[in-house]
Amino acid sequence: MLRLLAVSFVALVALTTSSLASPPEDPPIQVMVLGVYHFSNPGHDIHNTKADDVTTPQRQAELAEVATRLLRFKPTRIALEDDADAPGLTYAKYHAFVPTDLGKDRNERVQLGFRIARAAGLPEVHAIDADGDFPYDKVEAFAAQTAAGKARFAAIGQQIEASISEFSALQKARSVAALLAWHNEPARIRMMHTLYNAVLAFGDAASQPGAELNAAWYLRNARIFAKLTQIAKPGDRVIVVFGAGHAYWLRHFVETTPGFQLVEPARYLVDAKR
Q: What gap in Å lies between CA 193 and CA 50, rounded to an integer?
């Protein structure tokens, strides 16, 4: 009996010592990657969505509802798709923001980023975009060398245009929250990324333009995420507002990087979607 008590005591001491020796883990950095369509129609992409005017009273009411929903996430940082213009990857343009800008500036950085940051009482907004090459023209030139290549390349473009047409139809009947929920469906994000994988077929022993395009796109998104890691601290809750095309890789980095935790926008937008 005494021996059993002694063994139990030693085991208890060892367990207690082990617990004391292990420092508590840092709370995770929760990241919501909010893939968006470009509200202001900048026309910078190869295939461009035509967004309607988000400064109308109806869309402004819908955007206010989006902000209310996303504020339930209790964000501590907002990171936007632009180049930083102040130290610490911060965005000085945010300091000039006034509520009347919401009726004039269609850009999603203002309509979502600034709106949510101001409502959350955040003193700063971060800008974490990164330069990157996108050698689309080389893929197009390679595809043009053969009839089969032209047809395959055209088919990829047709799939993208079909998605744009689908969005245009949805825009007539859905709220902004519902449109954002559509863009951020995980299955849809994966499906759209397969179009990048389809480009890998364009190449031969002499050149690999499809692989180079994919590598360049990966590198740009890796740089963006690297900047996110440099501004976020344990326990932060970050909303990353970027074009929906970035969502696949940014979500991938969040899901596979220790200390980070992905938060689905649908948890906050799903009611509007339904």
A: 21
Mean pLDDT taken over the chain? 90
CA-only gyration radius of the chain, Å = 23
pLDDT at 3: 54
Domain ranges of the chain: 29-273
64 and 21 Cβ atoms separated by less than 8 Å: no
The stretches in the chain having pLDDT less than 50 are 1-2, 4-7, 9-10, 12-19, 272-274
Q: How far apart are CA 183 and CA 139, in angstroms?
A: 26
Q: How far is CA 249 from CA 198, 199, 223, in A?
A: 16, 16, 11
CB 67 within 8 A of CB 239: no
- pTM for the model: 0.88
Give the Cα separation of 78 and 34 in Å (integer): 11
